[in-house]
Amino acid sequence: MNVAEKPVIAAASLIGQRIQKKDAPEKAAGKTRYIQDMVVPGMLHAKILRSSRVHAKIKSIDTSAAKALPGVHVVLTAADVPDQQPIGVARDHLPLKGERVRSLRDEIAAVAADSDEIAEAALKLIRVEYEDLPVIASPEDAIKPGAPLIHPTPLDAHGRPQSLPPKTPIAFAGKPDNIAMRFDYTHGDIAQAEAESDVVVEDSFQLHYVTHCCMGVSGVIAEFDASGNLLMYSNTQVPFLHKREFAEYLNIDPSRVRIIQPPIGGGFGSKLDIYPFEVICIFLARAAKRPVKMVFTREEEFLASPTRQPVLLTLRSGCRKDGTLTFRQVHTLHDNGAYTSWGATTPFVMMQTFSSLYRVPACDYHTTVVYTNNPYAGSFRGYGNLQATFAIEQHMDMLAEKIGMDPLDFRLKNAQDAGEVTGQGMTFKSCGFKECITTAAERSDYRKKHADNIANRNARGPVKRGIGIASMLHVGGGAKIYPSDGCGTILKLDDFANVTLITGASEIGQGSETVLSQLVCEELGLPISAVTVVNNDTAITPWDVGVHASRTTFIAGNSAIGAARKAKAKILAAAAKKHDCDEAALDLRGGFVVVAETGEPVVELARLMRNLHFSDKAELVMTTFYYEPPSVHQDKAFKGDVSAAYAWAAQVVEVEVDTETGIVKMTKVTGTHDVGRVLNRLGLEGQIEGGVVMGQGYALTENLIVENGVTRNPNFRDYKLVTAPEIPEMDITFVESMDGEGPQGAKGVGEAPAICIAAAAANAIHNATGVRIFGLPFTPEAVYRALRGKSDKPHWPAWKPE
Amino acid sequence: MNVAEKPVIAAASLIGQRIQKKDAPEKAAGKTRYIQDMVVPGMLHAKILRSSRVHAKIKSIDTSAAKALPGVHVVLTAADVPDQQPIGVARDHLPLKGERVRSLRDEIAAVAADSDEIAEAALKLIRVEYEDLPVIASPEDAIKPGAPLIHPTPLDAHGRPQSLPPKTPIAFAGKPDNIAMRFDYTHGDIAQAEAESDVVVEDSFQLHYVTHCCMGVSGVIAEFDASGNLLMYSNTQVPFLHKREFAEYLNIDPSRVRIIQPPIGGGFGSKLDIYPFEVICIFLARAAKRPVKMVFTREEEFLASPTRQPVLLTLRSGCRKDGTLTFRQVHTLHDNGAYTSWGATTPFVMMQTFSSLYRVPACDYHTTVVYTNNPYAGSFRGYGNLQATFAIEQHMDMLAEKIGMDPLDFRLKNAQDAGEVTGQGMTFKSCGFKECITTAAERSDYRKKHADNIANRNARGPVKRGIGIASMLHVGGGAKIYPSDGCGTILKLDDFANVTLITGASEIGQGSETVLSQLVCEELGLPISAVTVVNNDTAITPWDVGVHASRTTFIAGNSAIGAARKAKAKILAAAAKKHDCDEAALDLRGGFVVVAETGEPVVELARLMRNLHFSDKAELVMTTFYYEPPSVHQDKAFKGDVSAAYAWAAQVVEVEVDTETGIVKMTKVTGTHDVGRVLNRLGLEGQIEGGVVMGQGYALTENLIVENGVTRNPNFRDYKLVTAPEIPEMDITFVESMDGEGPQGAKGVGEAPAICIAAAAANAIHNATGVRIFGLPFTPEAVYRALRGKSDKPHWPAWKPE
């Protein structure tokens, strides 16, 4: 377009607009190619034989018939891979089990064949002889004196010493008991604080097993090239960490491992660790000298992908009559399952909520994570915070009730403010917490409804109405857990002013491609369609620590902005030189370089790019940027400002409780989130709505039933996800606290919306019925029994170490 | 490794070493996945129906039976794509022919089906009615007055005006004759120069059809995403040019076209233009809403991929008795075939040889390119230079003989030197031409053998021995033909000091990945294995004009060095800061930062990278660079220094001619190339050896036999490539003229080695037999007839326009 034809271009911002996700058309059209759809020439198909016993010694494995089946290329057992090493957060987990199985998911053998069907048939031909061992089905049993040991020796594989260091400095496996991890945290003087308390409450809470239920089940393709370099097509959320880990595992230089991520059908934290199937797939590819693809069935996904960690939690909380919190003492007992993955580290996030959601002068937190023969827990959106918030936010209501204070006023009195530094060392540079509480309360008419529900409870029929509130604090500016929490960006403009944004940050469905494009376009005055995002290949993209801790918008966003601003500076300098004007007076808008003050176009950006490129002193605009947040690692006492920013929210849940059936219907959720600043309003709403529904499932319907080590409902008929008709009305609003470090002021919000729902629902049920339920989920049976005082205590026993 | 353990690291260079090609293990293991191997989920397979007549009107096309065949998804004819536009260098070529076919390769219909077999079966069901037109089978016939017109109207498709501009400013199609292009070049005063000549020779030469014979036949996969963006998996040598061209073609923004290059099984110039099959594949994908793959059969590759352009050439050359060249006058008549591709522009390269290989005061060059009903010619390694050199270098021998001067002395007397500016404006900044001649001559014992062969000719038996020399000049520093001749590079180092080199320059088997890696490693003191090259995706890589004109090492090499030097500067600055030493005193060697003078290690580079990354002021080393050579566009008189450097070579060919059978055996090739500087000695030798064999095929065995428009030998049984047993002994040496602009002093050499062989062979046959043969190839029949004075004149007629 000729500049002369172009009228003055007004300043316009993409920030806060509703921007369609860049991957939406492909996904809506069913054209997205997940790992399930991928075909690598020459690839084989693999299946895993899992244990049929919960806890047993393996006496023998006979694979001869499987090996003889036509179309079978490789059959592997532990004996075939003497170089296998333990994986997992505590390096306590051999991918192929040769001597002992510790849970029903345990991998005993694997087959690579010409088709899935042949591989499946081969599994049926493998004969395993077991000798059963006593099953430890609960953490309470695991810590009983004299309990059989689940890991009797540090490592039982081939008697070799453990060669890889554990992923965290905390020692896990190999203790002469079933304790996988134990730690203590404290700030303030608990004894004195308790002495100063007017009211103290103590309760135990039981949190159950749920699992991620990603629509895209786990899968991987592994292949080695002719030089022995490994290429993994993997759904991992942390490609750069896994690149290094696989290299360590294979004892090769990390440059020889390349991870390409196909579009990922949901992560939610489930893809933060290395799991046996990935390593087994590598072994199969190595043995077959062919690419090998392994994709879980849905049943396998339920049985062998990680879970949210079950917790028994005893909370003791105190306050003064005036509503000032005094102390909080917590003991948690975690069911680690048979092996240690990230679930074992969720207490570190729970701790933040205990220590810092509200101002509390003294906090004492003791945690114990124990091995059982149950499924093992990984990381899961919210990462312990759902469990902690479930307990704390019920106690907030209970304390308020005890001192006769309105639950809102009680929360507001103790809520954090900007500028505060907590006992754990978190520094709240931006904090819209109080505004979240008041906004959610006002929009839901909480005060009136809460009082009315109590006043009119008995006058109502068998269906009681209730309203409950809960609040949350979560990291919103990354979390400095690894040596670096940063992200790199490479940006190039082409001859048509289209941008390639090469970012380390992965898209796992959360919309990061769209938000990053938006941030770049905001700097460069371009439409979203001008950006192509490259984000799925460790050989191409700069480093990023991975998708976790609600960090991508904040960290990768700041990185993308950094690269875009460098590009903008180059562009304006070139325009100023070419068109003989003052660089500082120029801006980029609507695909043009304009005079900032008037909006008068100077040159079309695409034309300028070609001028730059097709000249004697030819140049392309290419920039790079690396962003590392100003957060710090926690010290040995778990203190330190671990995130560059913190997200806040309050959610009000309204329910109808049918006292005759125990059925709880969630009718409305009113949520207010301090997101720093709204970037993509549409994406943010989607993120919040999805999180609310996930929280709703956690509260009401989802329950992975594990009985004596056996998962009883590994399918979508018996494991009940919330479906569209049950989704409540939602009223979602945002507090824009304009975080000083955040990209355009924004903070991370990926995990936040799932966190409060169960806690708020518990408070709402209590508001409706006067009955408080301390265990999840609120199934009709559980609620029915609770309403009749028949809750089976052993299902949520008080627990505290001696 | 601990620095303390590391001894002093001596300076070492990779330059001039023998470095294995990075892609060799995959290729040798048969693991490389060419487009033939690729499977895109949901893809269809496509085939093209080609004309069964050489020149005809199409009366009707009936596709109904093909459409009804089960498994057929789409059948297209010209009538189904009313938006098709002409392609090709002159925009004279509609992909699907609806009204007229002009050669046997012409595309009439295309089918996309579930399998190749179904598509093939569907083709057989398509009925086409033709009305034959007179065939023009030679350029001589095409320019006869009153010859039927091959393009009777500017464009016969739907009567629409031509909407895309031609690729070159020279007007081609639509003239009221069969002439596709005509131009004239001159420098100096021909008449005066001829008057001053003591000797003048004039001969006509006939150059034949050969074709590239890439081991990987042509193929493409086209697909549109849900937003209508086009992704092409394409073997093109010029992805960025084609991205733009396909976008123009589809009338969409170039950002919506992405080209990914699978490993390419040979290019040699054949993949520089867009061909109908590519556009047809796009049409099929658009209609099917599915990915569509189209791969040629070998027969199709012979029939429908481009050829080297046949030429009738009349050369008139003069010199003085003292051996000084006086003038050169040339007329060339080119068989364009039915459509215009790059073949039509090869005269521009021929011109350089005529005007500038030797110092010649006057040069006059007239060329005419005419349409025929024959296959059409594209670009092909050497790009006209084989044809020009074949004529010139025979005349050099003939002139020398006429004035009784040794052919070597005659060449040396007229050879260019560094510093010279030719009549066409080329400036030879580095020039090892004379050293090439003397080295090749000395190493082959040329003078003695040449004299002996003449002296002993009659004394020998029926098998005569001959030796011949020829020289060449070719661009060696790119060629400024497009608005830019540059290349961009993005470089990143990871935490383990491994490098990702993102370059615009494609690998087509020539070894560019290896040489570029080497140049980067030379700067950064790393082993070749430390580099991963990313070079095959227009969405990721920065711009490059493409693989042609022997430019990649020079242009992309300088670009890679630029990025690597920026990285080195960052690294040394960081090391100096961290280790408190003088940046200028540091160097990079063997994976370490060292004190340059002593070689004493300061810090392991990988460790420094991690220190940089895992620090509060975290950083990654990422750099970008764009290199544009200092060459200029030619002016309207074809004058200008079009390349940043020029390559030189002399090749001595030795033959045995069996005078009883006409069989010519090439026994030895002694070649000396001015390559500026040897970078990868192994790669360079491979490049030279391959080129020599290609030249040998051109000289002796390869001949695409086209009779009356029909290609008679579209297969490897009848089209004779040189095979291993026939390959001569080779003695390859290099002159290192250390080009000032070249990367580490190097110049491009990709095309050079094929250029002189046929010319030197002609001189060798003359040396053996006393008979000079002016046409190619030197088949037994042709040689047998020539030795008996029975050469069929019409096979190489004298031709000159009136």
UniProtKB/TrEMBL annotation, chains A, B:
It comes from the Bacteria. It comes from Aromatoleum tolulyticum. Signal peptide: none annotated. InterPro entries: Ald_Oxase/Xan_DH_a/b, Ald_Oxase/Xan_DH_a/b_sf, Ald_Oxase/xanthine_DH-like, AldOxase/xan_DH_MoCoBD1, AldOxase/xan_DH_MoCoBD2, AldOxase/xan_DH_Mopterin-bd_sf. PANTHER family: XANTHINE DEHYDROGENASE, XANTHINE DEHYDROGENASE SUBUNIT D-RELATED. This is Xanthine dehydrogenase, molybdenum binding subunit apoprotein. Residues 29-134 form the Aldehyde oxidase/xanthine dehydrogenase a/b hammerhead domain. It holds the Pfam family Ald_Xan_dh_C. GO terms for molecular function: iron ion binding; oxidoreductase activity.
